[in-house]
Design brief:
The chain has 295 residues and is of the alpha/beta class. The protein has 10 helices and 13 strands. α1 crosses α7, α4 packs parallel to α5 and α6 crosses α10.
Amino acid sequence: MESKTILITGGDGFCGQHASVYFRKQGYHVITTSRKTKNRNTYQIDLLNKWEVNEMIKLIQPDFLLHLAGQNDVKSSWSEPLLTFETNAMSTLYLLEAIKTYCPNAKAVIVTSILEESINPYGFSKKIQHEIAKKWSDYSQLNVVIAKPVNLIGPGFSKGVCAKFARKIVFAESTDGICNLRISNLNAKRDFLDVRDAVTAYERLLLKGESGKTYDVGTGKLNTLLEIVNAFMQLTPATLVYTDEHQPIKEPTYMANPLPLKLLGWKPQYSLIESLQDCLDFFRKLQKAGVDIGG
């Protein structure tokens, strides 16, 4: 049987790289998008250019779309709110319009965020992205599923707090052995999920997800940042010194409800400790290879 074509936007991002590797191993014909890179399996494109998006979808005719591309940094969203909105909302609209025109039978998973209700431009942009995906599914009778992932962790370059901690820890391991962590609020709680488990969840949604429905992608468990620091302490010879700045939590604590996704047959495979270990080992490998990972 001929393999299905999946188009993964944001293929050079943290989750996109893992998704590309996974779906290729599963036998899919994988095409990714990138703003900077172009090769046989990577389509270089500005997803804010409606004409380019139309031409891409017309050419590729994907069976599946996994929309991961976006502006995912909360801090940057404050300095560039308009760009954040355009990148997260308008790119989604252009992709769905192009699918409606050129391959209406394709199935799409639009990846938003568990932080949709956050009081920042990033959260607002993801909330609008969610509404666009849901409404266009209704308006155009498209097969669209919405995924709301939690904080994704694991090996790779990520802007998340665990990757930031891991980078500092590995840098400390190669210098004086002292790692100073400044943390806004040690009691802040997050639902952390391994990025590789998120990818298998997205495949499950592409194959079994109900059109128009939203699925949380997470563990259903909360960990404080203090618990994350304590877990890292078990995995490194470095001495971790942390400072709690006692800043108020600006985002509501949101714990995912993974039950609807689990009813589709999905189950996470990586424990928190395994994810943090792999995160450390990723930066250790780079450090050993002479790559400057910063500190």
